[in-house]
Design brief:
The chain is built from 14 helices and 7 strands. It is an alpha/beta fold and 358 residues long. It has 3 domains: 110 residues, Nucleotidyltransferase, domain 5 (2-Layer Sandwich); 88 residues; 142 residues, no CATH class.
Length: 358
């Protein structure tokens, strides 16, 4: 591994992170320094930066988003480095390169961060406290997926024997076990046991998430909207972080709820949403929108807005209505968060018109 000399110049480091090692490439002025590999551990990173004969504030480090990006960026920022976490999805010039290697990727990161940081589409990662809180939400989401997979498998197995599973929801399907034929019950015993354990785990996470919301008072403000409970409000608060971070349009765009754009000359195609940003939060917002549009949703501006779109007819119109409500829900939650002293009015539009007429 080469040493880096300072010479009163800014140092740009590209770090390509893999599971075991980190490839480092350094740029100082017009000089290139392939630094080689270090171990992907706190001790390995600290040992490397201890050997750099330069003040940490003169070092800019570029890394890609990934499993290790959160703790590595926090470690380097604590040492005084400027850390740019590049959005890996938007770096086609790296992952689609004809000649791709860890060294080349690290060099590209270093060169681009020196030229223009915005080209890396930098992202703001969660702090440690929010990352720990979000872990409960992610773990619950994993259990929900596993439960859905097991339930679908059980339904398929039973239907192949002509056993009717209609009328049983995901909460009550476990009750079928006792009425199944003896042979089938014996072969599905472990699946039903796992299903019960997973369901209990989900309930435990629900209680834990509700407890965590006590540390985030903004969640109570967001829960004024019927259809937004502890799970959605907490995930929204953790992912967004700061209500003044975005304007309304930027928030919807950040969550991937805005249409793609492909316009050239006289052609302006109508495309689906971008689906960028946090998948978990976007999915939860869509679930909230489905509740608002569903049979248990209350009469409100959000529901009326969705109904106007769904009235165009067809399944596609209904899907568009749900996405549009999810987008407006995200914006409404942001507005509520910014104005915690203002009570949520589900009929804000109608009431505001009455005030104007008066």
């Amino acid at each position: 591994m080469n040493n880096v000399s300072h010479n009163d110049k800014k140092i740009y480091l590209g770090m390509d992170v893999s599971q075991k090692n980190i490839e480092i490439f350094a740029l100082i002025g017009e000089n290139n320094f392939p630094m080689g590999k270090i171990s992907n551990t706190q001790d390995g990173i600290n040992c490397f930066f201890d050997k750099i004969a330069a003040p940490m504030k003169s070092i800019t480090v570029a890394i890609e988003t990934g499993t290790h990006s959160a703790w590595i960026s926090r470690l380097l920022e604590e040492r005084g480095c400027e850390v740019i976490v590049a959005h890996a999805r938007d770096l086609a010039f790296i992952y689609k390169g004809d000649k791709k290697s860890d060294r080349i990727d690290a060099e590209k990161l270093a060169r681009v961060v020196r030229f223009d940081k915005k080209l890396l589409h930098p992202v703001k990662l969660l702090d440690k406290k929010r990352q720990e809180a979000l872990l409960a939400v992610k773990a619950r989401d994993l259990l929900v997926k596993e439960r859905t997979c097991i339930i679908n498998a059980i339904r398929g197995f039973l239907r192949s024997f002509g056993i009717n599973d209609l009328g049983y929801s995901h909460d009550t399907i476990g009750e079928m076990y006792s009425i199944l034929p003896k042979e089938i019950r014996a072969n599905l015993r472990e699946l039903f046991t796992a299903l019960t354990a997973i369901s209990n785990g989900i309930k435990a996470y629900d209680k834990r998430i509700e407890k965590i919301t006590e540390n985030y008072p903004e969640t109570k403000t967001l829960q004024q909207i019927k259809g937004v409970g502890p799970l959605i409000s907490l995930t929204y608060a953790l992912i967004i972080g700061d209500p003044h971070r975005f304007c309304a349009k930027e928030c919807a765009s950040y969550l991937g709820l805005v249409p793609k754009r492909d316009q050239s000359g006289e052609v302006d195609k109508q495309l689906g949403i971008t689906k960028c940003g946090n998948k978990l939060l976007r999915r939860l917002l869509v679930q909230g929108a489905q509740y608002i549009m569903g049979p248990f949703g209350e009469d409100c501006d959000l529901r009326n807005f969705g109904n106007r779109i769904a009235a165009r007819g067809g399944r596609i119109a209904k899907k568009k209505a749900v996405i549009a409500v999810a987008r407006k829900l995200a914006i409404t939650m942001l507005a509520l968060w910014r104005n915690p002293n203002v009570a949520y009015d589900p009929h804000f539009k109608a009431n505001s018109k009455k005030i104007k007429l008066a």
